[in-house]
Structures are given as structure tokens and as C-alpha cells.
Hints:
single chain; alpha+beta; 6-stranded mixed sheet; 6-stranded antiparallel sheet
Amino acid sequence: MSDSGQSPGQGSRMLNVPSQSFPAPSSQQRVASGGRSKVPLKQGRSLMDWIRLSKSGKDLTGLKGRLIDVTEEELKKHNKKEDCWICIRGFVYNVSSYMEFHPGGEDELMRAAGSDGTDLFDQVHRWVNYESMLKECLVGRMAVKPAIPKDYREEKRVLNGLLPKSQMTDISTKEGPISPSYDWFQTDSLVTIVIYTKQKDIHLDSIIIDHQNDSFRAETIIKDYSYLIHIGLSHEVQEDFSVRVVENVGKIEIVLKKTENISWKCLGRPLEKHNSLIPKKDTGLYYRKCQLISKEDVTHDTKLFCLMLPPSTHLQVPIGQHVYLKLTITGTEIVKPYTPVFDSLLSEFKEPVLPNNKYIYFLIKIYTAGLFTPELDHLQIGDFVPVSNPEGNFKLSKLQEVEDLFLLAAGTGFTPMVKILKYALINVPSLRKVKLMFFNKTEDDIIWRSQLEKLAFEDKRFDVEYVLSAPTSEWKGKQGHISPALLSEFLNRSSEKSKVLLCICGPTPFTEQGIKLLHDLNFSKDEIHNFTA
């Protein structure tokens, strides 16, 4: 399948192996919703070693290449380390051979042995490309009776762009937002699709639009739900389009330009999951190919990558959220999460925080002994990289009325802080001060040091402190690791009862230790946001 689009899910009629993706858990920018711990792997049990084994031709299923339908009773029998089958989204895998390669350890895998591990999997890393990683372990799929929709006869009826209400996902108002709706109208040269979200907190970064050939896809994020318009357009449209959000009523208008000035009899035909409202955690990751425009050195091992979105895509990554970049390495799809930044902390500093959304910038550390980042670094200008929809649980409302903002970052854990820092200084009137404590090994590792210091000079509300764990003898600043003494001195409020927010990001040991220390210093859970969890 192509790099753009979603994987087929459990409802696929054919047993084809779909694709989402696999992160590198050691990354400082990894975002793991379950806070999973890594387990030290034995020699020869790395991700690359697993890829080699899976490509070796060895029979990893014990079925000599056959695919079978698996009953619940059969699945339950395979619940031991040496004979372990797990079901994920309707597909069954023999993971016995993978046990020693699993970064989360054997015990973590055994929690789902002989059962449906989908929910457990989603809690920890739902973006992992298990389909590609475990392709050679595929036993088959669960034996399920085919479900016939009650309104099967109505399935293809489109009433002026509106599907019957029976087609809408049945979610009660107690569980989620009121079901949105949509309509469309046309002029000689334009087609306008209008989405009525029935919510007031809708912005330009709430809607993600992709259209390729005749396929038009618009996903609207409404609280923790996703509303999808997915249509095969009845006629051709031009690549560029415009999007307008009427925030006070939650209306989104998408204006498409007709290729030919003819009257459309209908908007088009419904495609997969069209007109559905489902919890965001149940939606697959959707990718589009973005072009590498530039990469420049920032430190000795960190580079600033600039990717350009396709002209037929509207995507603005909300502040504090991340996306996944996907590469195919030795035939296996690998992904890693990265938080977009600005091209600079200083350029156009007084401009709106959501400028031209044509480009996405990433600060990425190149690990020479790694698997993913060297491959990324080898890409040539003009090459394409699949980029996913945004993910993350940071809400801008956390910054409302904040007076003291404290940022704790280690290494490339600095990246989520870039947009938060810039947004807070421009858009939070209550803000009295922002302090960044930036942990690195050496002075050479400090990202954007001169920009940070210039910003601190220009805006007296901002202050930055560096802490080095392996400084030279010439270093006069703070040194060591995150500790009670460092934090006690750093976390001084502007007033005793000031409203405070602490953001932390870095390697898992750093954030775990940091959060423990923050709790010890009597900061509440609501006052702390961990970007690594």
C-alpha cells in the first residue's frame, strides 16, 4: 500500500497486512501514553536484529506459511512464552520469537498472551507498526461472523451530501459531543463544503484536509473525538482550496475550485468511515507525503529539517502536539514521533503564532549508531517523507491565566517547549515570567543557545539556565543532573499564590525523576504537564 492514507482495519474483507508504525522508545522525543519502561535487551536483540531475523525466511509462525482463521478457544491455548499468540485488531500473531526483542520486556507481552491485546496495545503505543514489524509472525485472523449493517440498502444513498442519521456512529451526548453534520452548495466555479461542528472551540488547527485525485478527506477534531468527511468527488477540482472557520458558531467552510465550470448533480460517493464521529483514540494514523526542502546544522549532532506539505493538504499542528515521520528501512516501516518547532525563536517574533502552514520544521538529533535518524539524514533535498496527523494531549487552555511558566527540558526534549514559550510570551496577558532550565551533556549540545540568550535579553519576563552533566573545566554555570537543590532554587514563584504551570520533557529517567521531585516540592498533578507521557 502507499505511504499516504490509513491502514485497513479489522473490517477488511481481504487478509492484507496493513501499516501504521514503530517508534524508537529510546528517543527523547518519544511520546508514550502509557509511560512504558524500556527493558535492557540482550546482545543481538536490537530492532535491526529483529528485522534481519524476520527477513531470514525462518518459519516464525509454526504454520509453514499458511494463514488460518483463529477461534477464541484456539487463541486461549497459546498463552505461554514459548507458545504465545496475541490478537491485535482482529489479526493473530505468534510472538514467541519476538519475546526477547520486545523493548518493553517479555512480561509486558505476556499480559496479552492468548487473548485480544488491542486495548492494552492502544494504551501503550497505538501507532506502532505491528503489521509490518510482525508480518512474518502473522497466524491469521480471528474467525468472526460477517456483520450486515441494518441499513445496508441505505448505505450508498447520499441526500444532498447528507447521509441518513442511521449512518452516523451512535454516540450518546453523555459520552461525547453532539454529532456534527455537513452540507454543500455550488456556484459556476466553486464547491463549498460546510461542516457544522456544533461546538465553539473550533480553530484552523482543528481541521485536517487532504485531497488526492478524486478522494477528499476532512477530519475535524472535536474534543477527544474525530469527525470524518471522506468522499470520492464526482468531478475534478484544482489542487488549492481555502478553509475558513467561524469560531463563535463552530462552522467550517471549505471552498474547492472546479476544474470545469459545470453543475454537479451530487458531491460524490461516500468512502470508508465517511460521516462518522468516533473517539480519536480509535482512529488510525493518516499520512501524507511531505517534501524535504532544507536541512541545516544547529549543533554538532542536531539539525533543523524543513518539510513542505502538499498543496492539496491543510494541516496545522496544534501547540504542544507531535506528528510521526515514517521511513521504510530494509523493507520495514519505522516511525518516530517529533514535535514541530518554528524555524527560529526570534524571526517574526511579533507575528501571529499560526503563520503560513505550508512548512513544518523539526529539530532532530542524529544518532550515528541509530536506525532511523541516519536514514533521515541521508535523504536528499526534494525527497519525500510521510507525515502523520497530529497527536498529543496538551491543551492550550492550560496556559490560560498562568502567571509563572517553568520549562524543564533535557536534550531534544527542548522541542515541545519552543512553541509553548513563544505562544506564552505573545498571547498570555497574565504571564509574569517564563523560566527554562535546559539540561545537556556539554556546551556544544545546547540547541539555539544564542537565540535563547537574545530572547532573554529582549524580553525580561524570560530567563534561561543551563545545567551540564559533563562540562569542561572552563564551565562556570550549573552542573550535574536534575535534583532537589537545583529545582528548589529554580522554581521560585513571582508571588506565593501565583498560578503556575510546569512542563517537562526529556529521556524517561529524567522525566520520572523530575516529576517525583516536583511532587515532593508540593506541586500538584494539575500544575505539571509531562510531554514524555
